[in-house]
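Person: I keep going back and forth on a fold encoding question. Show me how you would write down a chain together with its backbone fold. Please set it down just below, with no commentary around it:
Helper:
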Amino acid sequence: MKTSLLKVLLSIAALTAMGIADCKAQLSAYDENKPVGWASVGMECTGSNNQNPVVVTTEEELRAALQSCKGGKASKTIYISGNIEVKEKLRYDKVQNCTIYGLPGSSLYNRNHNDNADYAGFFYCQNWENCIFRNLTLLGAGAYDISACDNIQLVESKNIWIDHCDIQDGVDGNLDAKTKSDNMTISWCKFSYLIAPWAKDGESDDHRCSSMWGSSDNRGDDEGYLNATFVNCWWYHGCGQRCPRIRFGKVHIANCLWENGTEDDPAQYCIGIGHSSKMYIENGDFSHTVLKAGQSNMRGHNKYFLQSNKLYHFTMTGCIGEDDAQERGAGYTGEFYNPYSREDYQCRVYDASLVADVLRNPENGAGATLDENLLATRGNDQYGSVPSAIQGVDASDDALVTGIRYYNLNGARIYSPQKGVSILEFQMSDGTTRTNKVYR
C-alpha cells in the first residue's frame, strides 16, 4: 500500500510535468550536451545526477550547500540564482557527486582588491571528484598576480566537467589545474579579461594568464595526470597568454577559437608549450587573434623549460591560421599523442571554418548560454524528449508521501510546475519533507 501510494503520487507529478512540457530552448547542432573526452574516460562524469536540488541566493546559502556534500556525504544539485557577491574564497575539500548550475542571468562576483589570497577568486577545489559546473558566470577582480587566486582552481581533483561557463578577470588565472588533477573536460566556455590589470610591487603588471595546467616543471609526480579536453572554448579579449599553457598532461584542444588579442591590446601568445606536455590541437581557429610583434600562437617559455630535456610534443591538424604540423622537443623520442588511440575516448569535431560562427552565437554558443530547459539535460538522446521530471525520491518504509507542493525558484508557492525549473516539496507522513524538481 505504501509503495503503491508513492508510485501513484510520483506518476501524477511526472505526468503533470510531461503534459505541460514545451521545450523552447535550442542547443547548437554541434553541442553534444555531455562530458565528452577525458572527463568520462574510465568513469562517467555524472555529478549529482540532478538529485537533492537547492536554490541559493546568498554566499551563506552557497557555502552551506557545498559543506553538505563534502566527503561524499550526499549528492547535491546547487542552483545559483541572482547575482551573489563572494567575499572569501569557496574552499572546500573532498566534495563529491556535486553539480553546480547557474540559472540564466545569475553570477558570482568578487571585485575585492587586496593581497590576501583567501579573499580573491571563487572555487578552490581540492580532492573534488565527479563534479559538474554548468552555465556559471564568474566575475573576478582583474589580473593582479597573486598565486592561488583563480576563479576556479582544481587541485588533486578528477572527473570534472566544466561546461558553458563565462569566466572573467581572474586575479591569478581564470581556470587552473594542478597537482595530479585528472580526467577533466572544459566545453563551451568563454574566457576573458575585461578589467585593466593592476600592478603589485615586484610582480607582473600584466598577469592576464587564463589557464595554467600544471604548476611547476619540478612536479614530476604530475606525469600521467593533468589529462584534459578543451572543446568549443573561446578565449576572448584580454587573455594575454595561457590559452591554455600545458605541463605534463595529455591535452586535446578541439574546435576552439582564439580572439584574445586586438590591435589595441595584442596578446603574448595563445597556447603555451610547457615541460613534458602532450597536445593534440584539432580544427581550431587562430585567425582572429592579434599577437605582439615576434610572438607566435604556439610558444615555449624558456624560463619554464628544463633546458636540457624538452620532452614536449604536439600535433596541429585542421586548424585555420596554423599549418598542419608535428613537433617534438629535443628530449622526446616516443610516439605523438593522439586522443583517438583510446577506444574509450569520444569527442566529435567539425570543420574549423565553422568555429567562429558557432562559438560566437549569442543564443547557443560558448559561454553561459543555457536556459532553464537545458540545465539538467545530458546527451542528445535526452534533449528535446520527455523531461526528466521526478528523480531521486526515495520514501522509507515507515513514511508515506501525503502531499506535494510546488514552488518557483524565488521560493513562492505555485499550483503547478511553471516554465523552466520548479521545485517539488513532498510532505511525508513522518513529518519530514523531501524536495526534487521538474522541468518544462
